[in-house]
Amino acid sequence: MGDPHGVGIVGLGVISRAYLDTLANHPTVRVVAVADRDAARAVAAAATIPGAEAVSVERLLHHPDVETVLNLTIPAAHAEISGAAIDAGRNVYVEKPFTVTFPEGRSIIDRAASVGVHVGCAPDTVLGTGTQTARAAIDGGLIGRPLSASAVMVTPGHERWHPDPDFYYAPGGGPLLDMGPYYISALVHLLGPVRAVIGAASQLRDARVIGSGPRLGQRITVEVPTHVTGVLEHAGGALTTLTTSFDGVATSAAPIEVQGENGTLVVPDPNNFDGEVRHLALDGPGWRVLEPRAGYVAASRGVGLIDLVRADEVRPPRASGEVGLHVLDIMTALLRSAAEGRRVELTTAVERPVPVPFTPAEDWLSTHAPGR
Questions:
Q1: What pTM does this model have?
Q2: How far apart are CA 166 and CA 350, in angstroms?
Q3: 97 is in which domain, residue-wise?
Q4: I need a surface site. Which of 7, 172, 300, 331 has the fewest CB within 10 A?
């Protein structure tokens, strides 16, 4: 594999720890530099990573050893940081959502193509054994022709646990753009791309109260819909009903359920890498749990970046910028449909990502390039 691939991380908030746990000691990559608008936070993070420097964003983007920038900033900064990294000739892997607006996302893809760099986008949870085992079952004909699916995410809101939840209720946030990428990305892997959507949305209240941390009790303004539902028309003919909400308490519904002409699959939470895939056959004796048969085993956040680094002309990256842009297209089209009261056709089309073969942890955690 040669020398480890140099990575620079911009944004060291809550989610960065999960990435660092995967990347800091992985032989395929080396975290060269970290940057954050809070310089002290960058220094603290660098102290936990052998050989990493705490630097300014500008220095990181032009660091001679940084080949790929991992963009973990808040959604409102995704386009700015990703664009600056591309302009500096760096590959980019960005947290979801790809950008806040579709035109920003389209610009990122176009700029990357013109410069000749690669772009990846979270979530990579869909590369784990949960979603990938369900996909293998569908592709293997276990439920016959897929007809429909449901995807449901209901929580009372992230302000209950996150110490700085403002961005969840600002443009680029809300339950759809925050949590929707997990569910919609999984649906693209399972059922293929989407051609059109119909959406509806509402907002329960115009302020939220922070429930933890040093800002406990502080009120923040809600600027986006907090309950979004809709129908996705997949290009292959299946229909998905999607619900994302920061207004409810909980749900007993399966995170994702796929109905086929010969059976039904229950797919685990796409915010996790693994979990039980359950199958009920037409006229079968009852539900059964499928053994994991595909996906990166015991995966964690950052595996999508490793998958991107190991991609080549034969096997494109699975958590790609093109998939991220298509997911963003779906989400912004749902919001536009809700606002305008009409069916909206998408402007993007994407190939269904290449499936992940069953890949033991010792393989993807090594310098070996698995998952072709």
A1: 0.95
A2: 32
A3: 5-124+301-320+351-364
A4: 300
